[in-house]
């Protein structure tokens, strides 16, 4: 629960929980309880810091364009030239 409440990666704990046979219901509950304070804090900061809509739109467009450039620039795999 503590690991999920921080911005640190929790992938190693997921592997240990799966390998150790940790109960899925208990694991899911711990993830939920750990995520709630983290996302509450994120939403509170997002509400307190007013970001203009045009900046959010520009960021979304930049992300989409970056993904498209990455897809188009990646060498095709499995196809003969």
Describe this protein's structure.
With 81 residues, this protein is an all-alpha fold. It starts with 10 loop residues before the first helix and ends in an 8-residue tail after the last helix.
Summarize the structure.
With 81 residues, this protein is mainly alpha-helical.
**Topology as H/E string?**
HHH
The counted number of beta strands is: 0
Helix fraction, binned, reads: 55-70%
From the N-terminal CA to the C-terminal CA, the straight-line distance is: 50 Å
Number of helices: 3
Largest sheet: none
Structural category is mainly alpha
Outline type: flat
Identify the notable features of this structure and list them briefly.
81 residues; mainly alpha; 3 helices
Write the layout of secondary structure elements.
Elements: H1 11-19, H2 24-48, H3 53-73
């Amino acid at each position: 629960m503590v690991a999920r409440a921080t911005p640190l990666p929790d992938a190693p704990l997921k592997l240990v929980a799966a390998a150790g046979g940790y109960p899925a219901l208990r694991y899911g509950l711990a993830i939920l309880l750990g995520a709630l304070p983290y996302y509450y804090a994120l939403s509170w900061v997002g509400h307190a810091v007013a970001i203009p809509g045009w900046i959010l739109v520009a960021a979304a467009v930049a992300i989409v364009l970056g993904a498209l450039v990455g897809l188009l620039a990646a060498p095709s795999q499995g196809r003969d030239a």
